[in-house]
Amino acid sequence: MTVRTIRVGFVGAGANSRRHHIPKLRAQPGIELVAVANRSKESAERVAREFGIARVYEDWRELARAGDIDAVCIGTWPNTHSEITRAVLEHGKHVLCEARMAMNVAEARAMLDAARRAPQLVAQLVPAPNTLEVDSTLQELLAEGYVGEVLAVEIQATQGRFVEPGEPLHWRQDAALSGLNVMSMGIWYEALLRWLGPARRLSAMTKIAVPRRKDATGAWQDVRVPDHVDILATLGGGLATLGGGAVAHLRFSTVTALAPPSEVWIFGTEGTLRIEADAKRLSGGRRGDKELREIPIPAERRIGWRVEEEFVNAIRGLEKITRTTFDDGVRYMEFTEAVAGSAASGQGVDVADL
């Protein structure tokens, strides 16, 4: 069967684009890699040579306007996601945007509004990858009542190591580039949305271990992005959160050296589930059991990374975007902004809702 060629351009070609998006889009049938615009013309030329991309732009705006491009993959830092996404959609092109949707809720909602004004175009965010292989099985178990009524959720997400005060400022620690996004918080909350729905209210405390670091130019900058966050939240609206919803405790940290690997616990009236993200393993136990047992997940249910395939299929009308929609991106940005507001005020805050 002959498929229509989809011509793709890339704005930003960082590690994730080179590791995943560029080679995996190229591997899809009927895809032509047309152009790339990176932070500098020189770096764009290196990417073009490496992957056989035909054309290089110095200014991403020229790529967004180009008449021979059907879709654009955005791999820049969050500070430009909103502007680039809106321009790409306004010029009639499908968009795949890197995770950490935007700097804040206002930018994320502007992206969603632009996508809603162009319903004929596909708008996709790169999804949270850490639980993809267990998601469908976990969602099914919750829907079937495996744990009964969900009472409590624990998420401990650690990228922990000992603090290095002399290290330069990373872009993820730079609020001018990453906005309100904190470590892997939005990624894990996106996964939680899939399982149990959004949070209603939360209270947060944060810690910045090293308050000043040198940036790439050698200039000292204040660090405004936390290294450690503890959150208490109430959940509501999910499949199994009856009786007023569950209480969730979420901890995200890059300073908890030697901590156990990241994991999730879901405690209910009739059962308990545990997700080990690094091992891609799901285990559980029900009333009467003495210990948890691994829950086998058949290979065909381990639906892992298929971002580029989903994007292409959605453009061709073969499936709808589920991982991840702009609506869900706005929801994780609403949570992110609520965490920032609570930490700054020392008060509990409501989480905005679409």
> What best-fitting shape do the alpha-carbon axes yield?
globular
Radius of gyration: 21 Å
The top-level CATH class of the largest domain is Alpha Beta
Unreliable parts: 238-242
Care to describe what's here?
- Helix 4 (81-90) runs parallel beside helix 5 (105-117) and helix 6 (132-143) packs parallel to helix 8.
- This protein has helices at residues 15-26, 41-51, 60-65, 81-90, 105-117, 132-143, 175-178, 185-196, 307-315, 326-345; strands at 6-11, 31-37, 55-56, 71-74, 94-97, 123-125, 150-158, 199-207, 212-214, 220-222, 228-235, 247-253, 263-268, 271-276, 281-286, 293-294, 349-350.
- The protein is an alpha/beta fold and 354 residues long.
- It is 31% helix and 25% strand.
- It is globular.
- A nine-stranded mixed β-sheet has the order 16-15-14-13-7-12-11-8-17.
- A hairpin with a 5-residue loop joins strand 9 (212-214) and strand 10 (220-222).
- It contains ten helices and 17 strands.
- The chain folds into two domains: 6-126 and 306-322, NAD(P)-binding Rossmann-like Domain (Rossmann fold, 3-Layer(aba) Sandwich); 132-303, Dihydrodipicolinate Reductase, domain 2 (2-Layer Sandwich).
